[in-house]
Specification:
Peroxisomal Thiolase, Chain A, domain 1; 332 residues
């Protein structure tokens, strides 16, 4: 069996990032780190879905602008979202003459894309790649759960889908920028949990497995990293990851955070178990974490994108909810 | 702007393939090329969706077995399907300890995965990668159109989703096998067509654009290839591609086929405009085309995976149906 952690040799760097969020996200503790806050969920469009596409386009525009690049400078875009047939992404790029590589990794899609961009830029397949993903509370809620007007009650384990989009540009060999050093793609992990309203519990075993594999393959432990951020486990999933490592005698320490716990002031904003969605890891990384990397607050970090792999149909069919987690290691 | 065709240097080879199809496919002209024909749409499972997952697992098993490999020999699996949240794929791999990279490229997913596997194996990110995709008439029909029991009439432009799955194993440097020489990822092409029952017309402009780009970037023309196969344009889309090239003074010639026209005996089997679905290009390639490559019937080919990027919701919202097409060049 291969060592399944990929080590990059040619310094694929994250040369810029962009992020746009919705109203609730702009009222949370990370507000200052986002490029733009849009109070109108439709973003001036006719439907929430069209609005979500615009979030994605706008996040990419910010990332391009900050790097002083235009669309034609991109070798490809890795994109995805949570909508059926990933239409937020494909419609975002329908006017753009840039190769589009569509991904579906549920809420792990941003990190999946980041790792793929690492491989593409490292190998020279492209000189520059963009990663851009989105999610939207209103489009997700009506697709996965209930129409918003129904006003359904949510259990305390539920998480709130982040409205927004995050994007990064990955380019070769510009060493002053944060570089993608390694990546570990995760496998599908099914722990037999079937409560789709407790996604943190469904995804935590996958996060544990992929992080453990990354530590093993790179001969590291949590204390080697200034920051370890899981994507959107929320309060329950984050605690579960801590507990699973604790059983192995491994302390995840103070440097372990979860983007789903950082996005909102959970109690003040009444956000139940925290934030979730493709855009959760994407915006927290593109805004807050990139800022910390650029200011050398952190020098070596892990970003672990987590996804739960159910559909409304599999939930109706009483299937379990498997999880997946992809890990990238980033250094300054 | 980069030359957007990727040329592989380290001979990523397709060392084996596997394909499993359903009843109608097994009654078509390519029957002898498939590894297994399954008359039961549920494949012995409780639901069609679980059956589709089993098609996918079984196709991968055939590909592994023929290469004398086991799951642990794989660095990763690129997988996808047409179901909401790509559950046929993620549930297929939930018992497998192999990194899973989920894709959504509609019916272009097989070729998207083949090109990604080319990049991964060429760069040494993994030694071996599998690509496996599925589609299923019964799961697709009730998700995209009507419950099967409704017995809806279909217009003559409609295509029939292939029931089945196709898989290949890509590995480095084994030169007696067909090798992936080049790949061109396509962009999203929106020609303003909004008839979701005429997917051939929606996808043809994307096929034309990506093939044209591949010819330009590689200084080739259709006559340089022994076979050019688009994924699932059907009779209308295939004719449209011919016409679009004809306007440029380019004759696509006799070597141009479409997998969606090859799968069924369209008139005898009453298949309207032909076949479609992720599994169309995947099974025709993994069975029929791989056979021709191994027997040196063809020495240099193009496989152009085509996808239409709508969802039932975007159709209801009266959106257009954009298309996408990814191209891989394969040599013996």
């Amino acid at each position: 069996m291969d060592n399944r952690t990929i080590t990059f040799k040619n310094t694929p760097c994250i040369i810029s990032s962009g992020c746009v969020v919705g109203k609730n996200e702009s009222e949370g503790p990370l507000s200052e780190y986002f490029d733009k806050c849009v109070k109108d969920g439709r973003f001036g469009e006719k439907t929430w879905e069209q609005g979500e596409s615009k979030f994605q386009k706008t996040a990419l525009d910010y990332a391009l602008k900050k790097a002083n690049l235009s669309q034609s400078d991109l070798g490809c875009i890795f994109g995805g979202d949570l909508l059926n047939q990933c239409v937020a992404s494909s419609f975002a790029y329908r006017d753009m003459d840039v190769p589009f590589i569509g991904l579906y990794g549920a809420c792990s899609t941003f990190v999946e894309g980041l790792a793929l961009a690492g491989v593409f830029v490292d190998s020279g397949a492209v000189s520059r790649a963009a990663v851009c993903v989105s999610s939207h509370f209103c489009t997700a809620e009506r697709q996965y759960r209930n129409p918003l007007a129904y006003g359904g009650q949510r259990p305390p384990t539920a998480q709130r889908t982040v409205t927004g989009a995050g994007s990064v540009i990955v380019s070769q060999g510009e060493k002053t920028f944060p570089k993608i050093a390694r990546a570990t793609f995760g496998s599908v992990v099914d722990s037999g949990i079937n409560d789709a309203n407790n996604m943190g519990a469904c995804m935590a075993p996958a996060a544990y497995k992929s992080l453990k594999e990354h530590f093993k393959n790179t001969h590291t432990s949590p204390s080697d990293f200034d920051l370890i951020a899981t994507g959107d486990l929320g309060e329950i999933g984050r605690k579960t990851v801590r507990d699973l490592f604790y059983r192995d005698g491994v302390d995840m320490g103070e440097s372990y955070i979860d983007c789903g716990c950082e996005m909102f002031d959970i109690h003040r904003q009444d956000m139940h178990a925290g934030a979730s969605g493709c855009a959760c890891a994407a915006t927290v990384f593109s805004g807050y974490i990139m800022d910390g990397l650029k200011n050398s607050k952190w020098k070596r970090i892990l970003l672990a994108g987590t996804g739960s792999l159910q559909s409304p149909l599999t939930v109706q069919q009483n299937e379990t909810v498997p999880g997946i987690c992809h890990v990238v290691e980033i250094e300054v």
